Amino acid sequence: MAHTTDKKIKFSIGAKLILIITFILLVSFCAVIVLFYRLSYNDLLSAAEKNNLEANQRYAMRAHSLLAAVESDSRAFFQSAAGSQFNSTVDSYFARNPHIAALFIYTPGQDTRIAVNRHFIPLWGINENYLNLFINSQSQVLGRVMPGQTAVQSAAGIFPKSAAAMFYSLQGRTIAGVIFSSDDLNDYFGSDVSSYMINASGDIIVYPGSSIAGYGVNTSEFDFFKEIINSEERSGQNIYKTDFYSSFLSDNRNGRFFSSTYNNIKQYLTPYITVISDQIKNIFSYVTSVITNEPVKEKNINNNNESRQIIAFTKLSTAGVYVITFTDYDNIFNAINEALLINIIIVIIILITSIIIVSVLSKSFSVPLKALAASARQTAEGNFNQQLQVKNKDEIGALSFDLEKMNTSLRSLARFVSIDVASKSMRGEINNEGALKHGFILFSDIVDFTAKLKNFSVVFGDGASGKIVQWLNQYYSRMTECVEKTGGYIDKFIGDGIMAHWGTASTAGSPRKDAFNCVKAALLMRKALFFMNRERKSSDYSNPFIHMGFGIGSGMVTAGLFGGDTRTEFSVIGNSVNLASRINSLTKQLGADILVCEDTWNLIGDKFITKEMPPVSVRGEDQPLRTYAIINFFGEAKGPQSIDDMRALTGLAPEPNLNLR
């Protein structure tokens, strides 16, 4: 059976409280955050999609109006300025249309006629020869323009600013063209959400601001554009995952959630922190996607440069171009993402604060509980003389008070039972089955005890009983100390007698050591009695002088718990017990206060000054009993050194004319 002290606390109450409170807080906050996010998500997404589609339609109308105006005005000019009037009327046309950079007429096999806006070209800082190069480079487009068709191309390659070129057939094989500035559309397209005008080949014609550094940007390989081109609808909207921004338009992107944070981390912190932050972003994105459960068309999802975009498109009836409007999906939720991040930070702060508070508060009861647990362990081990310092005015304080009351009760009970024996009994080391032990039994009594009792009755009359109990208890208290100090066990008090034994309830490790402790206890009892008598006065009839006799026997005894179902006591039985009792009765007869049997003397005779006494025939023994008087410790200068010294000290002497045989 395991000792109580072997019990280890594997999971403290404070740790349990921290886990419980953490769990409650996490569940509560997560529920609130998820509810908030789900409710906000649908409203924000619906509003963003509506705004994106409306913006796309506005931009499409504006682009249609511009393209239609450019085409109709230029057609009207070409139809009215035929032949020689072309050069004479073009200046007035440019004055009315300052955004037009150049007009040209192309007929296969003939020289291209070009009219340049003399005010526009120097302002843009370009060479007229570039116009010729550009027009000649559009041979494929010119060849594709069929009667009744219109084509629009980007002219950004020859201008430092945004420009576009429109081609349409006039009559026969003649192709007319207009190069015009698209700055107004560029600025307008970027005023709300990012929009782009793209021709059927995927070339970007108009884009917000001037963010595209390169030229000839083509979107035909992007999945979203392929789907738009193949769509039978003239307008629509969907959510796509694409790397369109990261490939060409990253400079024009609005700040996405976390982007500035990540850029700062990458710029100022180590790459390891960057990796961690990227993982946090991925986890955050995953959590939000789980919460929102949004439908996203994802392709090439392993591409880390992809981003989610709400893309609306409108196919214009003019020139077959498309106006495509982008809204960064993640930017829609910046506000609630930031709120979510703030909430998460608040949750973390609250959790940390709660853990600290709970840790501090838990000590207000975990520390007293540990003290109570330690006290309970001490109580289980037989230490009832404890002073608990727990002063809580709660259940713990009540428990401490009750434990103190229990210790008080056990202290009272300990006067009737041996704590060591009780503890061993609880641990299963002593049971009703008994055990064979090599024991050393001591019997002692007070010489002339009956005469002293009579004297008490004569002197104190009815009050004699109280005086006797007080006198005996003082004597027993000092004798008990000597027995327990040497590891002995007080079996019982028999009137004026004491029965004690060694090597039974506990052992010093060997019979020789147990025998030494037994004899040592008798000498200590003699010494204690000497000092008690020295303090007594002959005139004090309530505290008369005491002389004692000790008999020590040894041998194999049966030790165990004896008694009934309701009451038991630890004791020993055997011939050695009877032998010790008979030896004790010989002390006055042989004139020695401490007598030991031969077996005991054989074990410890070299440790003490002894005197062999005449053999005595006793009842129950076939041979005369050999005993030895214990005079003093061997080598001890103080105290008796001979049998005569011992008799003088103790007041014992052999009676004259006694047949010791």
Q: How do the strands and helices of this protein lay out in sequence?
A:
Layout: H1 13-80, H2 85-96, E1 100-106, E2 113-116, H3 120-124, H4 128-137, H5 139-144, E3 150-154, E4 163-169, E5 175-181, H6 183-189, E6 194-198, E7 204-206, H7 223-230, E8 235-242, H8 244-249, H9 259-268, H10 271-292, E9 297-298, E10 307-315, E11 322-328, H11 329-332, H12 334-380, H13 395-414, H14 419-426, E12 435-446, H15 449-460, H16 464-485, E13 489-494, E14 497-502, H17 511-535, E15 548-563, E16 568-573, H18 575-584, H19 587-590, E17 594-597, H20 598-604, E18 608-612, E19 627-633, H21 643-650
Parallel strand pairs: 8-9, 15-17
Antiparallel strand pairs: 1-2, 1-5, 3-4, 4-5, 6-7, 6-11, 8-10, 10-11, 12-14, 12-15, 13-14, 15-16, 17-19, 18-19
Helix pairs in contact: 1-12, 12-13, 15-16, 16-17
Your description of this structure?
This protein is of the alpha+beta class and 661 residues long. It has 3 domains: 14-332, no CATH class; 342-414, no CATH class; 430-650, 2-Layer Sandwich (Alpha-Beta Plaits). Helices cover 49% and strands 19% of the residues. The chain has helices at residues 13-80, 85-96, 120-124, 128-137, 139-144, 183-189, 223-230, 244-249, 259-268, 271-292, 329-332, 334-380, 395-414, 419-426, 449-460, 464-485, 511-535, 575-584, 587-590, 598-604, 643-650, and strands at 100-106, 113-116, 150-154, 163-169, 175-181, 194-198, 204-206, 235-242, 297-298, 307-315, 322-328, 435-446, 489-494, 497-502, 548-563, 568-573, 594-597, 608-612, 627-633. Helix 12 runs parallel beside helix 13 (395-414) and helix 15 (449-460) runs antiparallel to helix 16. The chain is rod-shaped. Residues 1-6, 250-270, 295-302 and 655-661 have low confidence and may be disordered.
